[in-house]
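Input record (Table S2, row 400):
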Amino acid sequence: MASVKLTNVKKIYGKNTVAVHDFNLDIADKEFIVFVGPSGCGKSTTLRMIAGLEDISEGTVEIDGRVVNDLLPKDRGIAMVFQNYALYPHLTVFENMAFSLRLKKVDNDEIYKRVTEAAEVLGITEYLTRRPRELSGGQRQRVAIGRAMVRDSKVFLMDEPLSNLDAKLRNQMRAEIILLRKKINTTFIYVTHDQTEAMTLGDRIVIMKDGYIMQVGSPSQVFEMPDNLFVAEFIGAPKMNTVHTALELEDGKYYVSPFGVKMPVDGDKGEALKEKGVEAQDIILGVRPEHITLSNSKNPCAVPCQIRVNEMMGSELHLHVTTPTDEPLVIRVPTVDILPNQLAALVPGVRIYVTFRSKVMHFFNAQSELNLLTMPDSTEEATTKESPAETDEQVQPENK
Ligand code: ADP
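Output record (adenosine-5'-diphosphate complex):
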């Protein structure tokens, strides 16, 4: 068992550099949690406070219900894997993995058992007598993980463990971590700046910006219902298209007019706006590139565009187009759905028509940048709103 709980955790470096503001999170036993966000958002600092490598300025960290703020890293029952694997170059793989057990004076038979078992799980048995320099990056990575495994840790902390690997190896190791996770039945907290890694590995993802949590949710939650514009643009590649427009309400029906083309908001999205009593307002409308489809001039809601750049990615074509309002738009076209002669015609200068359904539209308030469908109601907001003291960011720290 190893649950981890952070309550009102804050980190201040020096006198007033606030790296982490009021971080609240309950991590369940055996959950795989990923902290993701751009460089400098406070991911590593949070992880290092859990590990005990950094003092906690305010708040508490609990592991299995016990406050560990004042415990040394070695007494917290955690294992940490860093991006620079920090293996001892003069020791064999076996001795690298055995190192912490020897320090703890574990007897030789037990060391042999634990190291060989971990090596078996990681598929590095044949390298046990080699030294780190005789291994590839991926193999070294596995040794670093093995070293953490032999210590019977309750929580695995990983700080950008794949960032030193080339793209191909990174994909391979990502798949291996997914498999490994099933074999090592423990709690994982994983830090990365890469949204793909976060989406593929996490049971839940914690998206951070400037020391604040912007959203916590499963990969599908944060993709389908981002709480704010930051999350919407951070998750998904190519990133979500956004356009300023007005949400209008006429005879009980909602309309938007992105790129100068008026279109109804119907179906589930229209219902959801109505149910929440959303008022007409200036918004930022978001639509993911993969949710836009090619259409024709007969469709009254089609947006006329002109292709500016076409990027052939193999299985998909990315079209960068200009719109009637000169706002840019990116469209992802799966090549398998298109006849070869049609595909060959999608070149710069060509005019095309595109549409998107209400189902794939995301609505953000133009000022606060909060999702109109998930933001607290105005009455709730008045009682729960807490403005961050050190920033004038509109987006509220979020904790679910
Ligand atoms: P991330 O892991 O998301 O890239 P960090 O947690 O490393 O971000 O850093 C968060 C913020 O804290 C950054 O603004 C960084 O410059 C600052 N910071 C990190 N470590 C220190 C330190 N030892 N002293 C002062 N500021 C630091």
